Amino acid sequence: MNYSPKDKYLWDFWIISSEKHYHLFYLQADRNLPTPDDRHEVASIGHAISPDLYQWSEMGTVLEKGPDGEWDDTSLWTGSIIKKDDLFYMFYTSRFSREKGKVQRIGLAISEDLHHWEKYKGNPIITANPQWYETCQISEDGLEHWRDPYVIYNPREENYYAFICAKANYGETQGRGCIARAKSKDLLCWEVISPATRSGNFMQMEVPDVHIHDNDCYLIFSVDKLWYSRKHLEEIKPGQPQTGAHYYHAKDLSDIFSPIPEHEVLLGTETNTYGTRIVKTFQDQWFSLSWKAKEKGYDNFAGCLDHPKTVKHLSKGVLKIDSSI
Predict the structure, then answer these.
(1) Do the domain assignments include residue 136?
(2) Contact at 8 Å (CB) between 320 and 18?
(3) Per-residue pLDDT tens for 41-78?
(4) Residues 36, 310: Cα–Cα separation, whole Å
(5) Where are the beta strands (DSSP E) in 1-145?
(6) What is the domain count for the chain?
(7) Contact assessment for residue 58 and residue 46, using Cβ atoms and an 8 Å cutoff
(8) Domain containing 268: what range?
(9) Residue 35: inside a domain, yes or no?
(10) For strand 273-280 and strand 244-250, is the pairing parallel, antiparallel, or unpaired?
(11) The model's pTM
(12) Does residue 8 lie within any of the structural domains?
């Protein structure tokens, strides 16, 4: 059940279904690194397939960092995949070594079969717009947070939206985390627009994942319990900050996504999970998948996939995950 590639850590991942299989793409790094945290600097993208979300077959590495001097010559970070016509478009994050990895940007790779990928010559294709978002020139940590793109089609507008981990360019540092938004008609030319969330609650909001159920839109994201702002710590009392999946709700992909009071946390600290994705199966059922930081049978950092859990869509935009499965 707890899949990870042979002799490698697995963490942030994304999924697309095609024909009779689910295709899992994930960040990976060798387990023989000096410390698990070193994985972020050497990550590549691996691929596995499954007929049922439980049993996974490793397909190997599909995308690696670019050659020295290219914009993505450090390591590859989190992304997503969407199909348009007969092609698959993989969006991913990377950084440039000449900038000492301080600026995060989003690039694209294209495939006909999900196994062989070619990086787009016009990369990077989505970068932070200082009109709304914090850049390295004004950030307290000297970094430009612009990563983890999740791309989804909006049938109402007949265009695509990208939801991105970013920081707003105003407010208290501990509360600048937001989900940025960009839109496109063709997946190649993007217009960065105002955020999909209001800032003020978290320092960072990572690994956005968006899905539509009936007439409701759901934005899943992951945070560390140390990333709550002072304002939000007061708002959740007597509740405690949680590491793991949180979610916001909206009626349309173009709206502002907001928390539902007392229902913000989807999977908390006790689950040891992160980077949660919501998947609709071939049988029209909804499941969540996450990766695990701790798990029996693994020493120190687990770096493996958790087993699927049933997702329930309740009234008034409330989500619930059945952790007993």
Answers:
(1) yes
(2) no
(3) 999 999 999 999 999 999 999 999 999 999 999 999 99
(4) 30
(5) 8-18, 21-30, 44-50, 57-63, 76-84, 87-94, 105-111, 118-119
(6) 1
(7) yes
(8) 70-322
(9) no
(10) unpaired
(11) 0.96
(12) no
